Amino acid sequence: MMIYRLMNLDDISTIVEIERESFSSPWSEEAFRSELTQNLFAKYMIMELEGVIIGYGGMWLIIDEAHITNIAIREKYRGMGYGKQLLQELMKTAHWLGARRMTLEVRVSNDTAQSLYRKMGFYPSGIRPAYYSDNLEDALIMWVELVAEDLGDSETAGAAEGEEA
Known about the structure:
Layout: E1 2-6, H1 12-22, H2 29-38, E2 42-49, E3 52-62, E4 65-73, H3 82-96, E5 101-107, H4 111-119, E6 123-128, E7 139-145, H5 155-164
Parallel strand pairs: 4-5
Antiparallel strand pairs: 1-2, 2-3, 3-4, 5-7, 6-7
Helix pairs in contact: 3-5
């Protein structure tokens, strides 16, 4: 069974392993510790399958916008639709917490991630030149409007709509 929950300090060592599998410039244990203990805007979600952490996603919620900081799935679970599920859950959660729009940056060379984001309604809106410190690659900035009807029939989306009425 799939479970989504908030990340806690005990999860950090596993999350750092996933970071190393996923990114050429992975975040450190200290970076995650700081996000969880000092950043009031940060929300980090764990994706567990049968009690095993297989992915995580993070975002900053500022007023009515959510900015995805990281999203990653363990290497052996990629290509099975879990990334899409995790992104959907992040989008629903952001909307439930009051976000009306969501943004992220993605490497211009990362066609796989861009394809997923486009399928989820994200559209390109600009370039951040030399954004990535490891190779100075540009980042594509993408946005999506978070509309309850587009987020599916979840309790989260329904709860968010109920609060608006």
